[in-house]
Amino acid sequence: MAAALVEVKSISKTFTRKAKAAGGSTIHKALDAVSFTMERPERIALIGPSGSGKSTLLRSISGLHTIDKGQGTVAVFGRTVQSNGRLAGDVRGIRADMGLIAQQFNLVGRLSLFTNVALGFLGKIAGVRGLLGLWSGEEKQKVMAALDHVGVAAMAGQRANTLSGGQQQRGAIARAIVQGARIVLADEPVASLDPVTARKVMKLLVDLNERDQVGVIVTLHQVDYAKTYCDRILALKDGRIVYDGPAAELDEGTLKEIYGAEIEDAYWGDDNAR
């Protein structure tokens, strides 16, 4: 039996924050015994009110957050990312198969879009060649093909910081394609984009999943986008998963229970989302 793409078992994450009062501190449980499994390349949306633990869960899967000590484990492609509050020794090697896409685009502004996308080869090629930008002819073709696929090949030579947010986010997706990522973890990838551009970016994530059989886990504030572009939804509240099921079966009543007073901000009822 093939290993699950992602397996999260009973993980918790606690943050201790200094209070304004001298010597004081507050404890916030961002994740509380969270478990779920992605067996096949799905499109999973993580939704929930502000502070529910969506981004913390995503960053725990990638190993960017270390979980609390205890019984919790995170495994990707059958390889342990972290267990009992400790990262695996080969976590960087595991990340080589994970595409990370953030709200802030995570491109190097002074480098060209082409070079930013080519950086997806790092971890797969000799370090010195990558640092010097000595890309082979085949690698250059793959970069341009990826840029063309996401619709920004014409901007390949431009510095990343001269591009619009939507163009930069497409570049981040192209980098994941070049990387050969088997799973993409996207943290609020459309939060800074206008609705038209946001839909285009979400459709590219759908295409990545369906064309290349890449698993996608994406955190979203917009419930409409989650229901339109994802096939499974995990809803979090107070650090716990309170809904895990098909996007089509998440009804208005359940959403109101999850979001409470935030429901109007989260659910736009946008009939034009497609």
Could you explain how this protein is built, in words?
This protein is 33% helix and 26% strand. The protein has helices spanning 54-62, 91-95, 113-118, 127-131, 137-149, 165-179, 195-212, 223-229, 252-259, 263-266; strands spanning 6-18, 25-38, 43-47, 73-76, 79-83, 86-87, 98-102, 183-187, 215-219, 232-237, 240-246. It has a 6-stranded mixed β-sheet, sandwiched between helices. A hairpin with a 2-residue loop joins strand 10 (232-237) and strand 11 (240-246). The longest helix is centred in the last third of the chain and has 18 residues, at 195-212.
Name the structural class. alpha/beta
The biggest sheet, with number of strands, parallel, antiparallel or mixed sense and barrel status, is: 6 strands, mixed
What is the chain-wise order of helices and strands? Answer: EEEHEEEHEHHHHEHEHEEHH
Helix content: 25-40%
Shape: globular
Mean pLDDT comes to 90
Radius of gyration: 19 Å
Largest beta sheet: strand ordering: 7-8-9-3-10-11
Count of extended strands:
11
Task: Provide a concise account of the structure shown.
By secondary structure, the protein is an alpha/beta fold. The protein has helices at 54-62, 91-95, 113-118, 127-131, 137-149, 165-179, 195-212, 223-229, 252-259, 263-266, and strands at 6-18, 25-38, 43-47, 73-76, 79-83, 86-87, 98-102, 183-187, 215-219, 232-237, 240-246.
Topology record:
Blueprint (H helix, E strand, L loop, with lengths): L5 E13 L6 E14 L4 E5 L6 H9 L10 E4 L2 E5 L2 E2 L3 H5 L2 E5 L10 H6 L8 H5 L5 H13 L15 H15 L3 E5 L7 H18 L2 E5 L3 H7 L2 E6 L2 E7 L5 H8 L3 H4 L8
Helix pairs in contact: 5-6, 6-7
